[in-house]
Amino acid sequence: MFGKGASSSKSMEIIGSEKKFSVLIVDDDPIIRKIHGALVSKFTTEIQEVKNGKEAVDLCRSGASFDIIFIDKKMPIMNGLEATKELRAMGVNSTIVGVTSCDLSSERNDFIAAGQNQCYEKPLTIEKIKSLLSELNKNN
Amino acid sequence: MDVVVQLQRQLADHTASLFHEGFLNDQFNQLQQLQDESNPDFVVEVVSLFFEDSERLLNELAKALEQQAVDYKKVDAHVHQLKGSSSSIGAQRVQGVCIPFRNFCEEQNIEGCLKCLQQVKHEYSLVKNKLETLFKLEQQLIAAGGSFPTL
């Protein structure tokens, strides 16, 4: 179910322990940022949001690190696939989760090939996040 | 009848009709579940963002479809956004019109696109009115000292 890299990601050591895990939400749509922010806040308080792939890359380049990055596919300036490739090339080992309103069945391979660990159709739900966390714990 | 009980009944009936008539789907329930003491106005805030975004997109769509040479790629991008934001709040009838709308864009069918624009405007204005009524009933109920009924 998970793409390559999931087992080595930083989140493996953290999720399920007492320590809070950190999340970055990358989406150009303010409605999605708000909903996903509220959803993730049910699980952790360490949440940051940015509006496109370039902002995510810049943030990580400046030294920020995250256990999980939820990233949209279609965004202006830098899309989710380009940003994922760039982040992996920089050595970012966060669990990267693609979130898209496109048809997942035809696009899952693109997401995984770009270096993402998992992908979901928009919008995220509490159940999807629970299932992600449980998969991450299982792979730990 | 006690005002609170009456308002609770009205609110329950109105909410049930929104789901029964297909204006909203389970995604709206998901939003309601995210509203809590730390985020008391969450649903109204998200829906307000949806109203702003939809009105901007509907204006852009009307402008784009008025052009002599219609840029269907641009029209499709706007419809894709509208489909995404309506799906995010569970406005499934708006979301539903976006599907044939995108097909007409792909076929570069101007009549089909114009027809879908009218339909999506109509569905948007219906769901907007219904949601505004819902929020008004909730406010009245709180003002009367009541709490939301459990569906």
Automatic annotation (TrEMBL), chain A:
SMART domains: REC. GO terms for biological process: phosphorelay signal transduction system. PANTHER family: TWO-COMPONENT RESPONSE REGULATOR, TWO-COMPONENT RESPONSE REGULATOR ARR22. Residues 22-137 form the Response regulatory domain. This is Response regulatory domain-containing protein. The modification 4-aspartylphosphate is found at residue 72. It comes from Lithocarpus litseifolius. Gene3D superfamilies: 3.40.50.2300. Transmembrane segments: none annotated. Keywords: Phosphoprotein. Pfam families: Response_reg. The lineage of its organism: Eukaryota, Viridiplantae, Streptophyta, Embryophyta, Tracheophyta. CDD domains: REC_hyHK_CKI1_RcsC-like.
UniProtKB/TrEMBL annotation, chain B:
One of its GO terms (cellular component) is cytosol. PANTHER family: PHOSPHORELAY INTERMEDIATE PROTEIN YPD1. This is Histidine-containing phosphotransfer protein. Its main location: cytoplasm. It comes from the Eukaryota. It holds the Pfam family Hpt. The modification Phosphohistidine is found at residue 80. One of its GO terms (biological process) is phosphorelay signal transduction system. Residues 39-144 form the HPt domain. One of its GO terms (molecular function) is histidine phosphotransfer kinase activity. It is found in: Cytoplasm, Cytosol; Nucleus. Functions as a two-component phosphorelay mediators between cytokinin sensor histidine kinases and response regulators (B-type ARRs). Plays an important role in propagating cytokinin signal transduction. InterPro entries: AHP1-5/YPD1 (IPR045871), HPT_dom_sf (IPR036641), Sig_transdc_His_kin_Hpt_dom (IPR008207). Keywords: Acetylation, Cytokinin signaling pathway, Cytoplasm, Nucleus, Phosphoprotein, Two-component regulatory system. Histidine-containing phosphotransfer domain (HPt) contains an active histidine that mediates the phosphotransfer.
